Amino acid sequence: MNAENYDIKQMKQAWIEMGKALGIDMRPCDPDNFNNMKTSLERLQDRYRKACDFSIVGAIIFTILIFFMPSLREEYRLSVAITFAFVMLANAYAQYLLWRGVGKINPLIMPITQVSSMAKHYKKCHILYIILGSFVAIPWIAYFLYAISRSGIRDTDGIVGGAIIGGICGLYGLWQYLRDYRNLNME
Amino acid sequence: MTSETLKYPPITIPPELWIRFLWNRLLRFAALSKNEKYNSSYALEREFKNLISLENATISRICFSYSSSVAEFEDLRQDALINIWRGMHSFRGESSSKTWIYRVTVNSCLSTIRKHSRHQHESLDGLYGLIDCDDADKESIEYLHSVINMLSQQEKAIIMMWLDELSYDEIGYAMGLNRNTIATKIRRIKDKITNIYKKEGLI
User: What is the DSSP string of chain B?
Assistant: First the structure.
């Protein structure tokens, strides 16, 4: 195509050509299959719900496990367990809010502007939650490591090593989320 | 003759007759509702298939414009088809089928909230491989896709409907905006597109 002659009027022609060129076959159009399928939005909703359930169960089970952890000294047990339960319950609440929020999006009855703004809003909320959650989780991990190191058990090297690797991965993820959040704001 | 002697003796229906009667009513009701359900679902299925065969190009174009990879295109298209099928029950013909298809498909694409970085490393060549036409047309479609991708999500939706020659009222209905706002938005998008081309030295 001669790029110099390309203008808005020619876009219409290209648009028509696009429809003809995307000759997708009709095989996957059997509606019987669609009854049992889930859309990406529903899968996302399920993920939030499962994360919420997991956090509540985790807050109960792991708090008990941490409280009775032999590697922790007596004076740190209660504070580590309570802060852990707080982090998990805060996570559960955030996941619950996201689950409820995403569930309100209805592509069938809502106008495009509403769906667009809602989708953008909840995506922003998700990214903000990840960023804020990281800033809450990192101090807790640091405090947990401190409490473990005070116990005088020698296998802390493995825990510290794992935390550093996990921290690097987490920071990389955080950087990606920050970039996504910036892109969303620019849009 | 006393009034008591005029009374007929009560007819007693044996319980097995009652049971048989109720059982037959139940069977008849079940068969009827099954038949009705089957007929209505069959009609809906046929209507859905007709609609898709009519608007297949529109659905594919919208999903293609919102995609940056083949996997994303397939996901978006499948989600759009699922949503259209689910919406068939509630579609009451308040707007044209094309406007409705636009609204559901664009909403479906927009509500597919995904991480931006998931497909960004994939080359667009795979996506452009789906275009089945001669080289000149293929190039113009690629240009169009890249220009549309520079617009925001809402602008994309508006320009696609404008390219498909939907009226301002129809675009307004799908977008949830009034006619004047749509006219202003379209003018701005056109300016934006012209600027993109000027900036890239294509005009």
Answer: --HHHHSPPPPPPPHHHHHHHHHHHHHHHHHHHHHHHHHHHHHHHHHHHHHHHHHHHHHHHHHHHH-SSHHHHHHHHHHHHHHHHHHTTT--SSS-HHHHHHHHHHHHHHH----THHHHTS-HHHHHTT--S-HHHHHHHHHHHHHHHTS-HHHHHHHHHHHTT--HHHHHHHHT--HHHHHHHHHHHHHHHHHHHHHTT--
- Interface touch A108/B197, C-beta < 8 Å: no
* CATH classification of the domain holding B23: 1.10.1740.10
**B110 contacts on A by Cβ (under 8 Å):** 107, 112, 115-116, 119
Between chains, do A187 and B152 touch, taking CB under 8 Å as contact? Answer: yes
What residue segments make up the domains of chain A, in order of their start? Answer: 39-186
ipTM exceeding 0.90, yes/no: no
Range in B45-54, B130-139, B176-185 the model is least confident about: B130-139
Q: State how many domains chain B has.
A: 1
Q: B27: domain range?
A: 19-116
Nearest CA in chain A to B76: A40
